[in-house]
Give the backbone structure.
Amino acid sequence: MLTQAESAHLSDQSRKRFAERYVQLEQALRALPDKPEETPNAALRALWHLAAGTALSAAQATERSLQNLNSEQLATLDTLITQRLQGMPLAYITGRQRFMNLDLLASPQALIPRRETEMLGIAALARQRELVAMNGRVRIVDVCCGSGNLALALAHADPRAHVHAADLSLDALELARSNTSLLGLSPQVSFHHGDLLSPFDTRDYHGRIDMVISAPPYISTAKVDTLPSEIIGYEPTLAFDGGPFGVGILMRLMRESPALLRAGGWLGMEVGLGQGAAMLQLLRKNFAFDRVDTVCDTNHNIRVLMARRRAPANASASSCA
């Protein structure tokens, strides 16, 4: 809806067109549950700004005042609205998505960052602060880095963090590098191409990493075709197809990450709905880890697992209520 200030400075035509298109989106827009930031108001504002020549994320668009659009710009707005209602993700139309208060470039080169991954980012950031307080710096590996959202959020939070980000997709790495340049974080973030942790299978990394994090593909191959068309029709399949059972990459992370982690270091993983309990049990049985913490969503589903590399300290465990 228009703010009082916008109602005062927008022309009658712009106010009328905004109201009409707001009703259109309110009636027709079916935003996915994992994109709660995309309300009809936020979507319309983002598309309005884009029609005026400024690319903003949905979140950022709600923070900027709207300007009058001329007839040509209004026609552009209608074209953009049509694209959105036909299923093209808003972030791909605007080329922007907010993640942990950072406005990033978005494109079909990589998965659009989601709120579930922010849960992992927040948990990892808490561990990062502890590690920096103890050691004065932190060295992190982010695999399946996609657009670079996790790596950049952690690097942006503290100049003493250095993140090595890797992905199997060269397209995703290209987008991640663009985001790194956009945020001026190139001195803190290095990129590697390869399958999961394979780029780090050297003495330079073994036992020298403070934290391994990943928001990997975890949808089973059989379920990929059942995903909403807004996902399967536009976002890269490589970023969400987790293989026959969906947990293959998660299990590889459990097996392979201990070689990289120093004692007291952390493995952090985002897991899919219904996978948390089984993955929690596997981590608890893994002798390489002496503590496993969980983060749950509002429905009490485990969505993030944080496991500590075994150290001399007493073992403990915690879980969701």
Remarks:
- The two ends are 38 Å apart (CA to CA).
- Residues 4-94 form one domain.
